[in-house]
Design a protein that fits this description.
Layout lengths: L2 H14 L4 H8 L3 H8 L7 H10 L4 H9 L5 H12 L7 H8 L3 H21 L1
Helix pairs in contact: 1-5, 1-6, 2-3
Length: 126
């Protein structure tokens, strides 16, 4: 596993959200030190923790797996993948971004679930 590339990917996404390690750790039920060890490539997280982190930073498990299995993946590859993942697929107003940032992780999970259902419903109609 290319833990350094995966760690930088996760840290870059977390930083783009202006989310501290302490706040993220509290929200997902782990320690700040665990987040630091994962982001610095010193620890391979278990599947459950990795999935929670990726979900919280709005990352992609596909990106993480691609980086993890590529023995040649570099820190720069992780950073680049995070920058691509963080690009909005549609434009949000400042007010919308502020409202989303204020959501709890539970509220955010519900919002993501609703958006996925709407996307599926649109696809079924077309």
């Amino acid at each position: 596993m290319s833990t350094n590339a995966v760690g930088v990917y996760l840290q870059t996404l977390r930083d783009q959200l202006h989310l501290t390690r302490a706040k993220m750790a509290e929200e997902i039920g782990t320690t700040q030190n665990s987040i630091w060890r994962i982001e610095s490539g010193r620890q391979e997280p278990g599947a459950w923790l990795l999935a929670r982190i990726v979900q919280r930073v709005h990352g992609s498990l596909e990106d993480v797996l691609r980086l993890a299995v590529d023995a040649t993946a570099t820190i720069e590859d992780g950073r680049r993948a995070a920058e691509v993942a963080a690009r909005p697929r549609f434009a949000l107003t400042e007010r919308q971004r502020t409202a989303i940032a204020a959501l709890t992780s539970e509220e955010l999970d519900l919002l993501v679930d609703l958006a996925e259902r709407l996307q599926c419903a649109r696809g079924a109609r077309q």
